[in-house]
């Protein structure tokens, strides 16, 4: 489906010209460019110190959750505490501007809600993206892809959405027939979504607010000062929102980290900036460095958007002087060449044999990669004086792929050390956000793969929430006792029929018989079948046995019901019941999973979804 998504997302849609609104700001935003994060942090803290004391937190728009996490830790390192700031993502902030009465909840146009709103319509789109006879899980995945695409159009191409709202195509005149056909069905889907909600679309509402003097005054009162931090890319709809606040009279600082201020400054001075409608791949640069010529293209788009906030680029008047000296080490030399627009030349200053500032390792697998990273980090700590763990960043292409290797490799003690590396993940998967989410995902996965043998049940017993529900958390002895009951019950065939040997029901009957009959191997049912009671030699922990039997009965009832697809609202009820009966969660313990449960309970979607789709 990824391939289908790429092939059916028209290139003309990606490159259509972006025309920001012209709200004639009364106080232009202040653009403050930086070559590195250190300079940005210094300027950010200096601005924070100059701010008048206020009980209202200063809104700080950040590009991502990991960046926000890193920034907060650095502020705390410098000042001892990080308080008085409200760190918020661009989409969430735009939502506050458009619908302040909605608080901080999701709007109907948020990506999470779009997924469920699109889901009932995906049958009409299946053939267009190459799907044949998809499962409900496949259709839900397609709905997620389309929700992401619609969200990108709203934030990156608001002018195209406005054209759709006026009944026009958002494509340029030279668009191909294929692009127009692909736009037609996406536009038709968008119009259906718009007709199903009374909430305004973000791109349309920002345009309307420009002429609403009462709302502009309210925005000025609510956001007298605002800080925006970017790292090479800016959301065009966010730029329009900042222009709206500037017109209202808000004081706005925009801090951006860009790869080469000299490169962008030269483009401006020599009037070689690309036209707004040009894509990054259309720009050919005469920069003297290959890395800058390729990677710098993406910074140019942000640079053009910054020009819409401040056409004079006043921050570029204070560019640092270019250093003509060539550093000895390879890494600072590469950085200096990029910043000074120099063509790299190793002949004039050969790289020293012992230079380890840049190292490339060829590894045969993810585990070996992680082991190499561990060895390199340990080497750095032994060679670099005063290096601190929070100064080391490990970037990976997929956190999901590398996450299991963190405890197995990086945090594990090696070479006689007392402990491993103190690694902290900056963005956790849902399964690692708390006991309830971890437990619900495990139950949904059991229902999806229909793993009802004893091994699947034993895996559930490792979950912290399940242990808490059984009252055996932090008690290895009782945990082993319950594991022994599962093995002794003879569960081998999954759910099965009630009287079927090896079924869940039959295994429970054997445990009940063991509670009352003890190890009586000759006991028989009235139909002459052997009871085969599963009993402890000493008959210990009878209350725990009864608790486990009741818990297992609830689990079987849930798994049988969860085999059938259901609407999101029915899944909301199912999962609430699982939290209470299988994971032992009261209202307080369930709070960590509440946002997911609330979403399922509030979406207006009557399409049935299987357990795998809900888990996804």
Record keyword descriptors for this entry.
globular, 5 strands, five-stranded parallel β-sheet, mainly alpha, 27 helices, 616 residues, single chain, 50% helix
Radius of gyration: 30 Å
Number of helices: 27
The profile of the biggest β sheet is:
5 strands, parallel
- Rounded mean pLDDT score: 77
Percent of residues in helices comes to 40-55%
Class from secondary-structure proportions:
mainly alpha
Strand order of the largest sheet: 1-5-4-2-3
Low-pLDDT windows of residues:
1-18
Number of E-state strands: 5
What is the gist of this entry?
With 616 residues, the chain is mainly α. It has helices at residues 2-7, 11-15, 37-49, 65-79, 90-98, 111-118, 136-156, 158-165, 177-195, 202-209, 213-222, 236-248, 261-269, 290-309, 330-340, 366-383, 399-402, 405-410, 435-449, 454-460, 464-470, 476-488, 504-517, 542-562, 568-581, 594-602, 611-615, and strands spanning 30-34, 58-61, 85-88, 225-230, 251-257. The protein contains 27 helices and 5 strands.
């Amino acid at each position: 489906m990824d391939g289908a998504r790429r092939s059916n997302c028209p290139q003309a849609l990606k490159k259509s010209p972006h025309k920001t609104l012209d709200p004639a700001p009364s106080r232009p935003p202040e653009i403050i460019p930086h070559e590195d994060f250190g300079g940005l942090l210094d300027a950010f803290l200096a601005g924070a110190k100059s701010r008048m004391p206020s009980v209202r937190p200063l809104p700080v728009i950040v590009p991502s959750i990991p960046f926000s996490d890193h920034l907060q830790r650095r502020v705390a390192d410098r000042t001892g505490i990080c308080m008085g700031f409200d760190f918020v993502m661009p989409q969430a902030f735009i939502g506050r501007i458009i619908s302040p009465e909605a608080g901080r909840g999701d709007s109907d146009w948020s990506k999470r809600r779009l997924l469920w709103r699109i889901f009932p319509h995906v049958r009409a789109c299946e053939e267009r993206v190459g799907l044949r006879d998809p499962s409900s899980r496949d259709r839900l995945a397609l709905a997620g892809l389309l929700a992401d695409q619609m969200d990108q159009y709203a934030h990156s191409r608001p002018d195209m959405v406005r054209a759709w709202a006026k009944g026009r195509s958002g494509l340029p005149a030279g668009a191909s027939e294929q692009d127009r056909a692909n736009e037609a069905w996406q536009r038709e889907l968008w119009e259906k979504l718009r007709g199903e909600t009374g909430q305004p679309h973000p791109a349309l509402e920002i345009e309307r607010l420009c002429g609403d003097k009462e709302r502009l005054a309210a925005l000025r009162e609510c956001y007298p000062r605002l800080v925006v931090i970017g790292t090479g890319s800016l959301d065009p709809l966010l730029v329009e929102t900042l222009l709206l606040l500037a017109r209202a009279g808000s004081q706005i600082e925009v801090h951006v980290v860009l790869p080469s201020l000299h490169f962008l400054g030269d483009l401006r001075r020599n009037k070689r900036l690309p036209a707004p409608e040009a894509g990054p791949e259309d720009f050919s640069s005469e920069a003297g460095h290959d890395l800058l010529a390729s990677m710098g293209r993406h910074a140019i788009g942000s640079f053009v958007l910054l020009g819409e906030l401040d056409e004079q680029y006043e921050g570029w008047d204070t560019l640092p002087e270019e250093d003509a000296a060539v550093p000895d080490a390879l890494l600072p030399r590469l950085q200096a060449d990029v910043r000074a627009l120099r063509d790299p030349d190793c002949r004039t200053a050969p790289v020293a044999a012992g230079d380890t500032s840049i190292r490339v390792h060829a590894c045969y697998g993810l585990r070996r990669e992680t082991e190499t990273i561990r060895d390199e980090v340990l080497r750095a700590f032994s060679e670099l004086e005063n290096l601190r763990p929070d100064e080391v960043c490990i970037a990976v292409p997929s956190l999901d792929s590398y996450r299991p290797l963190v405890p197995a490799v990086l945090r594990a003690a090696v070479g006689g050390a007392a402990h491993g590396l103190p690694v902290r993940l900056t963005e956790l998967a849902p399964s690692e956000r708390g006991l309830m989410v971890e437990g619900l995902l495990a139950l949904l996965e059991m229902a999806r793969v229909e793993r009802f043998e004893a091994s699947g049940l034993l895996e559930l017993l490792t979950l912290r929430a399940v242990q808490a529900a059984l009252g055996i958390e932090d008690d290895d002895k009782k945990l082993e006792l319950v594991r022994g009951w599962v093995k002794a019950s003879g569960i081998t065939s999954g759910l099965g029929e009630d009287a079927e040997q090896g079924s869940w029901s039959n295994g429970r009957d054997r445990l009940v018989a063991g509670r009352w009959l003890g190890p009586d191997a000759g006991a028989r049912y009235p139909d002459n079948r052997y009871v085969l009671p599963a009993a402890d030699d000493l008959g210990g922990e009878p209350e725990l046995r009864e608790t486990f039997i009741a818990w297992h009965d609830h689990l079987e009832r849930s798994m049988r019901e969860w085999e059938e697809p259901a609407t999101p609202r029915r899944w909301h009820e199912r999962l609430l019941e699982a939290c209470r009966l299988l994971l032992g969660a009261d209202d307080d313990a369930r709070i960590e999973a509440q946002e997911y449960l609330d979403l399922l309970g509030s979406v207006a979607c009557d399409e049935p979804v299987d357990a795998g789709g809900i888990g996804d």
